[in-house]
Amino acid sequence: MKKIFLGLIILSSQLAFAQKVTGVKVEKAQKEIPAQLTKEKISLYNDNFLKFVEALKVSDRPAVDALLSDKVKEIVTDDILKKVKEGFDINKKLEILKTGYHKLMDGSSLPSINYKYAGDASSKEVIMAVFEEDGKILGVMPAKKTK
């Protein structure tokens, strides 16, 4: 009986010490982003978006390509630009509704501006533009038109 008890004590002490974890830290390097966009950045992004809308109005593809990010230039076709153009009323004046950062699936955040139509109190139709830090347009998500 003493041998069994001694064996159980030795076995349990080995199991107790084997479960000890020492100093494992998992750190994910994240880029520090400010809480809000600066007025200079908002002005830069807004100017680029308004130039983009004007280029869409007149179907000026070289001007649109100059405002788009290099990451999306290759995949943006004339059909996609046509869908973006149909997605919101380019003849109405746009005003800034909200500025901030849009979180992507990979965990990174990019600057974005939400626009609404000037004089629209309900702000049901919101157009979101996502930018790179240098002001190039990465994406435009037009409002859904209800018929």
Automatic annotation (TrEMBL):
Keyword Signal: yes
Superkingdom of this protein's organism: Bacteria
Keywords for this protein: Isomerase, Signal
Signal peptide: 1-18
GO molecular function: isomerase activity
Name assigned to this protein: Peptidylprolyl isomerase
